[in-house]
Design brief:
Largest sheet: 5 strands, antiparallel
CATH topology of the largest domain: Aminopeptidase
CATH architecture of the largest domain: 3-Layer(aba) Sandwich
Number of helices: 8
Shape: globular
Number of strands: 11
Structural class: alpha+beta
Radius of gyration: 26 Å
CATH class of the largest domain: Alpha Beta
Distance between the termini: 62 Å
Length: 324
């Protein structure tokens, strides 16, 4: 491709990972917001604030320990034992194998409780989110030391999960922003590879700079694709498959709603939301049709099905308005 030739498309590939299992990235929501603003990217793409209950579950799910107590192998495990709208209880159990029976025995050694605010029928909120940990005071020696150490790790992980963003949250930022620019996903890419119109190269490079600063396991590449027959075929096929997939997901969602609400009209807001998603995909398909002088039969068929479904629901919405 010559230096002045317009690329066929931009291939945008990213990988966003903490490199340490489910551990969050070394970046907070406020830090990511600052990076987006500096890159002239609308901070509306920021993920929601981390939920405290999610931080609690993440911090306790993988918490475990194994040690030897006077020749007996011991294991500390965490299990959820209670869940209500306002209270989640997870407990730490010490497990060992009975030398005589061969059966696993266990003893509860700590309670990990998370309390959520209670919302009244009038919409008022009582209480605050808080974490409460109670350790069995009858333990001593090595057992007490190991349980105390596990509890401290859980408390530290809870704070980390509250303050920092997950890999999933940052991937959602990149994906949402790229879709807003008219990107389509490359089939079988696992969600980290997209095709983007070449005129959005500057925006993609701005996103590249943001992702690079989210952690050592975070990177994004923007690769111009030359206009060659094989690449053009790949681009057209990817557009067809991606828009078809997105349309069929909405077909499924609308169908499930209809099945659960037979002969009931959706609210105007719900129906309008479905139609807006249809229009976004239709406009995208028209743009790509003109851009590549191509047809997209799979995407077109899926969108036709979706439009027929929403047209029928539109008649129900209109009838419901008239009956009021």
């Amino acid at each position: 491709m010559s230096p002045t030739a317009q690329p066929l498309s931009l291939f945008v590939w990213y990988t966003i990972s903490s490199g340490a299992g489910e551990e969050p990235l070394p970046i907070t929501r406020e830090e990511l917001k600052d990076l987006l603003v500096k890159a002239d990217i609308d901070p509306q793409f920021l993920p929601d604030t981390s939920r405290a209950i999610d931080a609690f579950r993440s911090a306790t799910t993988a918490a475990t320990d194994e040690y030897d107590s006077d020749g007996t192998p011991m294991r500390l495990v965490v299990r959820e034992t209670r869940q209500t709208p306002t209270h989640v209880m997870r407990q730490v159990f010490r497990q060992w194998t009975n030398a005589e029976s061969g059966e696993i025995e266990e003893q509860r050694v700590a309670d990990l409780q998370f309390f959520r605010p209670r919302r009244t029928a009038a919409g008022r909120v009582h209480g605050t989110e808080r974490l409460r940990i109670l350790v069995d005071q009858r333990m001593s020696g090595l057992d007490r030391a190991r349980v105390d150490a596990l509890v401290k790790r859980i408390q530290a992980a809870y704070k980390t999960n509250r303050d920092r963003l997950s890999s999933h949250a940052v991937r959602a930022v990149a994906r949402t922003y790229l879709y807003r620019l008219g990107a389509v996903a490359v089939a079988d890419s696992g969600g980290g590879a997209y095709l983007l119109p070449p005129e959005h190269r500057a925006e993609a490079q701005a996103l590249q700079a943001v992702i690079r600063q989210c952690g050592p396991g975070c990177r994004l590449r923007v690769i111009p694709l030359p206009d060659e027959p094989d690449l053009r075929e790949m681009v057209v096929e990817s557009i067809d498959v991606d828009i078809e997939t997105r349309a069929l997901v909405l077909v499924r969602d609308v169908g499930e709603w209809v099945a659960g609400h037979p002969e009931v009209a959706p609210t105007t807001a719900r129906w309008t939301g479905w139609r807006a998603e249809c229009r976004i995909m239709q406009d995208l398909l028209l743009d790509y049709s003109d851009r590549y002088d191509a047809t997209f039969p799979r995407a077109g068929a899926a969108l036709d099905t979706l439009m027929e479904m929403t047209d029928e629901l539109g008649l129900l919405v209109a009838a419901a308005r008239k009956a009021r």
